[in-house]
Amino acid sequence: MGEQSIDRAVREAMRAGQVPGIVAAVARGADPAEFHVVGEDARGQPLAADSLFPVASITKLATALVAIPPACRSTSPRCTRPMPRG
Q1: What DSSP state is assigned to residue 37?
Q2: Which of 35, 54, 77, 80 could form a disulfide with 49 if both were Cys (CB 3.0 to 4.6 A apart)?
Q3: Please, are residues 37 and 25 in contact by the beta-carbon 8 Å criterion?
Q4: Which residues, 6 or more positions from 26, have their beta carbon under 8 angstroms from its beta carbon?
Q5: Burial of 22 from C-beta contacts in 10 A (0-12 / 13-18 / 19+)
Q6: Other beta carbons within 10 Å of 8
Q7: What's the pLDDT tens digit per position in 34-53?
Q8: Is residue 86 part of a domain?
């Protein structure tokens, strides 16, 4: 896939996802990754290869809510022992 193809794919993904910008890294074998940067962040600042993005993971929250016993989710004094480490 050539650079123009990658840029075209990134721009199409931007349109489909309605995001203001994308930073895509493409790695081929042992070669260093190539970065393709298009657009801007949510504040309107131009993106760069080293731009930071806020990332949230709802999966971690859902796992924690299932893993922690209900008594430990409240302010109840019943939960006094530490949680085991996985």
Answers
A1: E
A2: 35
A3: no
A4: 1, 6, 33, 34, 35, 36
A5: middle
A6: 12
A7: 888 888 988 899 999 999 88
A8: no
- Counting every residue written for the chain, the total comes to 86
Enter the pTM of the model. Answer: 0.52
Q: Which range of residues forms the domain containing residue 65?
A: 3-73
Q: Residue 38, Cβ neighbours under 10 Å: how many?
A: 17
Give the chain's domain count: 1
Asked if pLDDT for residue 31 goes beyond 70, the answer is: yes
Residue type, 56: A
37: nearest Cα among 46, 29, 28: 46
Q: Can you read off the two tokens belonging to residue 77?
A: 């004094």
Per-residue pLDDT for 16 more than 80? yes
What SS3 state is found at 9?
Answer: helix
